[in-house]
Amino acid sequence: MIIDWKKIAEKIFEELKQKIKNSWKKYKLTVILVWKNSPSLRYIKQKEKWANYVWIEFNLLEFDDNISEEKLISEIKKLNTNKEVTAFMVQLPLPKHINSEKIIENISPEKDADWFSPVNLWKVVLWDENALIPCTPAGIMELLKEYKIEVSWKNVTIIWRSNIVWKPVANLLINAWATTTICNSKTKNLKYFTKNSDIIISATWSPHLLKVEMLNKNSVIIDVWFSVIDKKIFWDADFKEIEKNGNLITPVPGWVGPMTVAMLMKNTVKAGK
Amino acid sequence: MIIDWKKIAEKIFEELKQKIKNSWKKYKLTVILVWKNSPSLRYIKQKEKWANYVWIEFNLLEFDDNISEEKLISEIKKLNTNKEVTAFMVQLPLPKHINSEKIIENISPEKDADWFSPVNLWKVVLWDENALIPCTPAGIMELLKEYKIEVSWKNVTIIWRSNIVWKPVANLLINAWATTTICNSKTKNLKYFTKNSDIIISATWSPHLLKVEMLNKNSVIIDVWFSVIDKKIFWDADFKEIEKNGNLITPVPGWVGPMTVAMLMKNTVKAGK
């Protein structure tokens, strides 16, 4: 059976739109773009589209890709105090001469639409129930909730990919009383863990890493990443076989994208409070 | 076989003492004490003893336990800018009317001897190799290193206790390429994970939770917490039987204490740089 990311995302967009339409408050989301690679441009288009849809004013702030770290930080400090901007984010990746961590450290936690500043991450790790959480991890948790997939008491295996996704997800799951295993490419016997898992979140670059024989009948598969080989897209999970096996699985190529954007909009509204 | 925490801690104290004696630099560690319960007083005594031993000036700053949150924060801000103080820490727990997180948030990351401020924790989570890390987790990692117990590629199970210990430990292990499972009191089948573990770090309050039949021959056991029942101390691991079985295990009642204090002194010296 397929998990319908898109339907859930659309439900959230609809709710936000009603909320904002019926309120006096104005919201403005600024996205900083430095490195104009095509995935970044594509992601930004989606953000713009959905911001407009839910009545959040969208503003793209572009800089030359040879902008200095100092200059970029000073621009961020301006946004931190600009009362018109509800929330903002820096589209990653940045060019190599800029230290992303240093940039993120300078974003005011109150306006950090991506919720990746030290204070916000700290709140996630330390289990602050009021914490606002990074968009993709928040999207995954929301999806599980909408599908009434209980996390507490369950075994969850995360097969890693990035700081932005898997560490916050791991911490959220741990907080929610899941027995959580974080695997990596050096894991000795991945099957030992996946076979015993109620939920598997995979975000590697290994085509069809997850096969039917590695799962149990009830495992739910959240597949977050894919690889491209010879212009063909391969997801981490062998989707067709797994779906045939009766497991609940995220669709290919439905992807986590819409949910992540939905969480960005939700965070913007939260930041406005 | 027994893991000798104390020997390793003493080696670190000796190295620090030589380093400080042979340098012109002066170090001063301040500990803030609000709630004067007897474990806190005992921990502070140890800190004072070892600070003196390694030639770090020790200073205890006591406040009344009805001090307001605002007043405590203003005292912390004074220490943040006091040039004589190399590093400082707040002895936890604090009285209930004070929000510990808010207090810790106000400690300057540069002087945070316990390394528990948002920025420092963030650096641990995000794998900053220069990050200074919370004392008990740092002690555990140092111990494994001294005993040449490789972490990369290994299966590690953490049986939880607290934000201060297990979450940073988990993040450090994940960063070091360990396949890391975080269990809790709701874990369905703890044995499934422990049986498959190269290293088990336990910090619960369950007397003799870990028994021989839950381990494999090669599991290393780091037992960090204990419970007291009828004035008798019970550690998480059934020490006698496990040692007889030939596993490498931390001693009872050797405890992690000396290592934690050693890391506190090491952090103070690092903060002075």
> What is the beta-strand fraction of chain A?
15-25%
Largest sheet of chain A: 5 strands, parallel
Could you state the oligomeric state of the chains shown?
homodimer
Using CB atoms under 8 Å apart, which protein chain pair has the greatest interface? A-B, 34 and 34 residues
Query: How many separate domains make up the residues of chain A?
Result: 2
CATH topology description of the largest domain in chain A: Rossmann fold
According to CATH, the homologous superfamily of the largest domain in chain A is NAD(P)-binding Rossmann-like Domain
The outline of chain A comes out as globular
* Structural class computed from helices and strand pairing of chain A: alpha/beta
Order of helices and strands of chain A: HEHEHEHHHEHEHEEEEHEH
N-C termini distance of chain A: 38 Å
**Strand order in the sheet with the most strands of chain A:** 5-4-6-7-10
Can you give the mean pLDDT of chain A? 89
- Poorly predicted runs of 5 or more residues of chain A: none
Please report the first level of CATH classification, the CATH class of the largest domain in chain A.
Answer: Alpha Beta
Report the strand count of chain A: 10
CATH architecture of the largest domain in chain A: 3-Layer(aba) Sandwich
The whole-angstrom Rg of chain A is 19 Å
Q: Number of helical runs of chain A?
A: 10
Q: Percent of residues of chain A in helical segments?
A: 25-40%
